[in-house]
């Protein structure tokens, strides 16, 4: 109770299965006494492109634009654009980050990837010597909750898509773990569009059930061995 949760949500349709998963998370966590904030990226018309517009005022080097350097310098002097500052504040306050999205091309949708690209800047989420277990966002948990188009057999080691953990590697290890965030077991709803109404209800019930004991869960091992064994 009293925990703060940020749900970063990337789906265009509230009536979608992802929309149902979001609704359940908000209701269940609020019921537990958590304070829940949602960044609904499509509704916010969140800008996914990392551009010069993310820096307010002068550039560190106006001769050649380097996004990483410029956002780092801007972060230090409080010169990042308003939308980034707002998202960083939400991240800063959160004990848990939940990312809710449909899998697109073995990846998160562009609008969510853009959120990662723009919000998790150097100085805020990591620093040159402060990465992985030393990342700047330690003491936070994250959870990737997503839907797929293909069934579980497609995403097995023997399946055509390969182990789903390969898909999770850049998200969980390359972004979250890199920034020091601990990672909870992902929540995957396989092919909700291709299963019976009954099965969909079971999937939603399983998510509700999991959320009830979420705070008792231990983070997963985010080492390369976990992904590739």
UniProtKB/TrEMBL annotation:
Top-rank EC class of the record's enzyme: oxidoreductase
- Enzyme Commission number(s) of this protein: 1.10.5.1
Query: Which domain of life does the protein's organism represent?
Result: Eukaryota
Q: Which GO terms describe its molecular function?
A: dihydronicotinamide riboside quinone reductase activity; metal ion binding; NAD(P)H dehydrogenase (quinone) activity
Q: How does it assemble?
A: Homodimer.
Role: The enzyme apparently serves as a quinone reductase in connection with conjugation reactions of hydroquinones involved in detoxification pathways as well as in biosynthetic processes such as the vitamin K-dependent gamma-carboxylation of glutamate residues in prothrombin synthesis.
Mind telling me what this protein is named?
Answer: Ribosyldihydronicotinamide dehydrogenase [quinone]
């Amino acid at each position: 109770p009293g925990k703060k949760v940020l749900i970063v949500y990337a789906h265009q349709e509230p009536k979608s299965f992802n929309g149902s998963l979001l609704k359940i998370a908000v209701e269940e966590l609020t019921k537990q006494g958590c304070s829940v904030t949602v960044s609904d990226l499509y509704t916010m018309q969140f800008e996914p492109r990392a551009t010069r517009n993310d820096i307010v005022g002068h550039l560190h080097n106006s001769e050649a634009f380097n996004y990483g350097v410029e956002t780092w310098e801007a972060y230090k002097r409080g010169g990042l654009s308003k939308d980034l500052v707002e998202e960083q504040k939400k991240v800063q306050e959160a004990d848990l980050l939940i990312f809710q999205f449909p899998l697109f091309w073995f990846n998160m949708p562009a609008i969510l990837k853009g959120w990662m690209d723009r919000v998790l800047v150097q100085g805020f989420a990591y620093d040159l010597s402060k990465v992985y277990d030393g990342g700047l966002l330690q003491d936070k948990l994250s959870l990737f909750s997503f839907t797929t188009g293909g069934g579980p057999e497609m995403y097995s080691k023997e399946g055509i898509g390969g182990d789903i953990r390969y898909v999770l590697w850049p998200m969980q290890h390359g972004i979250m773990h890199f920034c020091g965030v601990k990672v909870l077991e992902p929540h995957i709803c396989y092919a909700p569009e291709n299963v019976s109404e009954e099965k969909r209800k079971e999937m939603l019930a399983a998510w509700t059930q999991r959320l009830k004991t979420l705070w008792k869960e231990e983070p997963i091992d985010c080492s390369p061995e976990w992904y590739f064994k």
